[in-house]
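Quick one, probably user error.
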């Protein structure tokens, strides 16, 4: 993919120094090159490309973690050290349900095991129904988390409107030089707005509402939807179902 055009190369003496945010030096990459001044020694180098670069934030040797990084030796006044970051491709697209999903968050997982471990290859927000990210070549399952109360009923689900990682259709990213377009599809359900009142008719202005499919879900703490409201009105999206149990937690006086 060529040189990393801009960003930073950050030098650490060891991985403990990285964990403690104790860098020996951070040096700007300009037009694909950098200049650094550090004491002689062995270093672990983190490459942090600017947004839009065709590379990921990664360790020298194209590694994902410090402990796997290829180290470099600095000795004397003049050293030419070339680093290798993980190559990536710009991936863009729309997030669609019955129509464009306004905003939310995306998580890209290389496998369902990574999902269970909470290890996303990339994650980030999307806005106005569109996203842009950078990913290394590979196969990814995408978890879509629309903002609560999306007016078109978009639900937390996997790309291809799947309810589980195992059922999701992967996207296949290659190192295409001009980027790739992958539109993502989210599951949709019912959009439910409303207000909460006390038994005396007083409107509850602030609190939580949680929707559960049944009593077993309540016992497991498995919510179908939840909203914390502050203006007297809640909005949730829930899967189509015959009925829900709703738990109300008022957070305003008199309720």
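Nope, works fine. Designed sequence:
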């Amino acid at each position: 993919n060529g040189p990393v055009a801009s960003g930073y190369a950050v030098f650490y003496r060891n991985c403990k120094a990285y964990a403690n945010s104790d860098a020996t030096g951070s040096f700007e990459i300009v037009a694909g090159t950098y200049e650094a001044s550090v004491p002689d020694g062995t270093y672990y180098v983190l490459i942090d490309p600017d947004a839009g670069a065709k590379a990921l934030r990664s360790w020298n040797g194209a590694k994902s973690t410090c402990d796997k990084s290829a180290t470099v030796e600095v000795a004397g006044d003049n050293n030419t050290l070339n680093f290798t970051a993980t190559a990536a491709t710009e991936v863009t697209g729309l997030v669609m349900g019955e129509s464009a999903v306004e905003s939310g968050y995306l998580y890209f997982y290389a496998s369902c095991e990574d999902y269970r471990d909470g290890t996303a290859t990339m994650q980030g927000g999307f806005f106005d129904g569109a996203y842009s990210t950078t990913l290394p070549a590979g196969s990814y399952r995408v978890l879509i988390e629309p903002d609560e109360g999306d007016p078109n009923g978009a639900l937390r689900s996997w790309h291809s409107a799947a309810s589980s990682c195992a059922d999701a259709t992967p996207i296949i990213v290659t190192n295409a030089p001009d980027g790739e377009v992958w539109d993502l599809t989210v599951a949709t359900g019912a959009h439910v707005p409303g207000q909460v009142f006390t038994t005396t008719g007083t409107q509850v202005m602030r609190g939580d509402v949680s929707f559960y499919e049944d009593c077993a879900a309540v016992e497991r703490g498995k919510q179908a939807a939840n909203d914390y409201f502050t203006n007297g009105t809640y909005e949730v999206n829930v899967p189509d179902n015959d009925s829900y149990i709703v738990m109300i937690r008022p957070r305003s006086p008199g309720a």
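The longest strand covers residues 41-49.
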